[in-house]
């Protein structure tokens, strides 16, 4: 069974992923030329920042500190299709991580928050998929 330290470690990995995702979405929303996907990506970047806040709250309540040490980010996508594909990929990775963590973590508060985040990531992926499919 995962102890508090293990849970803090997992939550910090989630936190850093939310941080990276927020920054990529903010940047992509600046350079997307089409108004609708840009606005949607911008609004979703705010959701990701809110996820950071929720995770940081869980981390600090358990005696941990949120880590801001993200990996070097790749901002090379410059056409709408590749940006949307990357965003869908990021959402899918998040969905897999949260699905797994909900199964292995026995802490009701953490699981409740992760389920809420998971629902939002599913909605995000759907929003991005709809825009990608609308392009063909
Ligand atoms: Fe998120
Ligand atoms: Fe998301």
Outline the secondary-structure elements.
Elements: H1 4-31, H2 35-61, H3 80-104, H4 108-133
Helix pairs in contact: 1-2, 1-3, 2-4, 3-4
The protein binds fe (ii) ion (2 copies).
One fe (ii) ion is lined by residues 44, 48, 91, 94, 121, 124.
Task: Describe the structure in brief.
The chain is 78% helix and 0% strand. The protein is mainly alpha-helical.
Provide structural commentary:
This protein has 4 helices and no strands. The chain is elongated and about 45 Å long. With 136 residues, it is mainly α. The chain has a single domain, classed as Ferritin, core subunit, four-helix bundle (Ferritin). The longest helix is centred in the first third of the chain and has 28 residues, at 4-31. One fe (ii) ion (FE2) binds next to helix 1, helix 2 and helix 4. Residues 18, 21, 48, 51, 94, 117, 121 line the site of one fe (ii) ion.
